[in-house]
Amino acid sequence: MLVSATTALSRRHLILAGAFGATSLAALGSLAPARADEVWTEEFMTRPETREGFALDAMDDWQVENAKFVIAVIKGHELDEQAAAITLATAIVESWLRNYEPEVDLDSGGLFQQRPSMGWGTYDEVRHKKRAIDAFLGLGDHSSAPGLLDLSPDFREWAPGEAAQAVQGSAYPDRYAEQIPAAQTLWERYSADVDPYTD
Fold first, then answer.
1. Is this entry keyworded Signal (predicted)?
2. Does pLDDT of 71 surpass 90?
3. Which residue from 5, 7, 86, 162 has the highest number of Cβ atoms inside 10 Å of its Cβ?
4. Is 32-193 in CATH node 1.10.530.10?
């Protein structure tokens, strides 16, 4: 379902209103910004990161910040731990929590290896972390590809790996479920100290 950017309510607001009710919609504008000591700049959101590898207890600073940023965006959309686990596990599988700049599989790129040719946005948009997360969730106005809330609005009732696969359509569907424990650990480590990000 696509909603024009010129409508009174954005696609994000319409989905959130349906999921959480009018009171949550009214509160959207009052969410706290990211912590003052944690500033995610445009440079952070678009910086090329191309080293491969993921080990939960050997993450470098960029992987940690990317994990925390995913959590902040999830919280900014008033979504929960289950949504975070699905999103983080997908980013672990697709990019090792790095924001790939080169095209590594056809025209794919970014945290989720989204393809511009499949409607996920432009070359730059799939590599912009906030836009890529929003698109994965189905809350990105720039993307015409169906995301998590489009394909599985009842995702809490799904096995997390299956919900991730519904969005990604991977040739290796079992890989997302394998990373759910790591994703849940990242939520447990960082969520209490990360404020919602809504910019």
1. yes
2. yes
3. 86
4. yes
